[in-house]
Amino acid sequence: MRPEDVQPLFTAAGRDALAAASELHDGDPLAAASALRARGMPPELAAAALTQVALRRRAAAKFGTDAAVMFFTRAGLEQATRATVARRRAERLAAAGVTRVADLGCGIGADTIAFARAGMRVLAVEADPATAEVARANVQALGLADRVLVEARDATETPLVAIDAVFCDPARRTSGGRRVFDPRAYSPPWDFVTALPARVPHTVLKLAPGIDHALLPEGAEGEWVSVDGDVVEAAAWCGPLAEVPRRATLVRDGRVAHITGTGDRKAPVGPIGSYLYDPDGAVVRSHLIAELAETLDGTLLDESIAYITTQSPRATVFAKCYAVTETLPIALKKLRAALRDRNIGALQILKRGSAHDVEDLRRQLRLQGTESAVLALTRIDHQPAAILLRPVDARGAAAGR
Ligand SMILES: C[S@@+](CC[C@H](N)C(=O)[O-])C[C@H]1O[C@@H](n2cnc3c(N)ncnc32)[C@H](O)[C@@H]1O
Fold first, then answer.
1. Per-domain residue ranges for the chain?
2. What are the pLDDT digits (tens) for 183-205?
3. 278 pocket-lining for ligand 1 (C-beta < 6 Å)
4. Would you call 207 helix, strand, or coil by DSSP?
5. Ligand 1 binding pocket includes 188 (Cβ within 6 Å)
């Protein structure tokens, strides 16, 4: 779907088409398209409306009930910040006293909407004219048009005047939709993005979770955010917005928890204890394992691997906790025999610091049995290791179960 395909939906006929498509969408898509055409609707409009209704349903996971009135392109939806994350960011900027923000590369407007809802005036800049129209339609649909000016133009040529903060979420995809991992391929270009804090000190950059720490602007706070266990973004809070060197923010079931630190500490290494913790990806990516190990009173199994071990259980939202059952031989035949002896037929395999292909190993283990377990493939003090585990929930851990 091209962005242009969404434009006919902004008209009165488009609104009617969307309403009709929404009623028919649950059935067979071909039958729905025929039914719309039978009502005299042009085939392109019928197809655009049905596609839009499908995107709105998919978008509900990111935007909740707003999705039902918003407009999306497929690429715009994929790249959009989810509403819970955008809202947090907007509230933090508002709390820092920001009232006028430029959103450079606003896409379909997810962050722009959050800024406007937090009370800011927003200059939303988008290079692609059709995507800019979608952003405009979204602020209109959500009743925010009086606070937002959407401009279809190149951010690199936009004067940054009469604003007190900048947000930039550069596109990290090729024009063909493939992800790019090298920041030098971002658009707007990386040089432009990293020069923003010198122009507007209150700058926030949204970056890929895999960003190299060395590439963060000097003095910036690097924040890694996970939602229900998935790391969704990194952000660089520049200039006066930086509060700590590194922060991991976990959003789980709508609740938010942070762990902060310097990101350059080394945790002590020690022998395997009775419990093993698999930290959330945001903690790992933000290099805050030493800080987490300290709060758990734990040590690492290996200096370069993010598994933490303790003697007694600790409740934490920052890691999954497992009780260590035993260490097993790592050699395939012995491991297979050990799992057979223990009647283990269902095995969740975790790995950190192991070159094993998990699905390949699972096939080779030819599991059979009625018991379930978790197996961590890792290293203990530089040596490959297989550790059999049993999940412990946070409350169980607290209660010592
Ligand atoms: C990752 S998306 C932004 C998503 C947005 N933050 C949201 O949550 O909906 C990046 C956007 O930047 C736009 N873009 C890329 N280069 C640009 C430039 N030089 N000037 C303005 N916009 C640009 C792309 O068209 C794309 O829509």
1. 3-61, 77-243, 275-398
2. 888 999 999 999 999 999 999 99
3. no
4. strand
5. yes
Q: State residue 3's pLDDT score.
A: 63
Token code pair at residue 361? 């190993």
Structure tokens at 93: 């900027």
Cα separation, 150 vs 65, whole angstroms: 23
- Tokens describing residue 280: 């959330």
- The reported pLDDT for the residue numbered 8 is 86
Q: Is 222 a pocket residue for ligand 1 (Cβ < 6 Å)?
A: no
Pocket test for ligand 1, best of 84, 106, 142, 227 (most atoms within 8 A of CB): 106
Q: What is the pLDDT of residue 109?
A: 98
pLDDT (average), residues 82-92: 97
Homologous superfamily assigned to 77-243: Vaccinia Virus protein VP39 (3.40.50.150)
Residue of 74, 101, 169, 196 best suited for mutating to test ligand 1, as the one with most atoms within 8 Å of CB = 169
Compute the mean pLDDT over every residue in the chain, rounded to the nearest whole number: 93
Distance 383 CA to ligand 1 centre (A): 45
Amino acid at 346: A
